[in-house]
Design brief:
mainly alpha
């Protein structure tokens, strides 16, 4: 039972992470200039990577992989 609740939690976190990635990517793409930090792109792509990891972990927990 706790695995299913954890899976749902991780899926919700991953949805929020994908939403944050999309908004950040769009903002940097539209308003980025010379003053934009070079690390902003790394932060955006790591956000996507964490979203994917949380999504896969949520699916694995729902399917009973652990």
């Amino acid at each position: 039972m706790f695995e299913r609740l954890g899976g749902i939690g991780f899926l919700l976190i991953s949805l929020w992470q994908f939403y944050a990635f999309y908004n950040s990517f769009r903002t940097i793409h539209q308003k980025g200039n010379q003053a934009t930090s070079a690390f902003a792109s790394l932060a955006i792509w790591y956000g996507l990577a964490f979203g994917i990891v949380f999504f896969l972990l949520g699916i694995a927990l729902l399917m009973g992989a652990f």
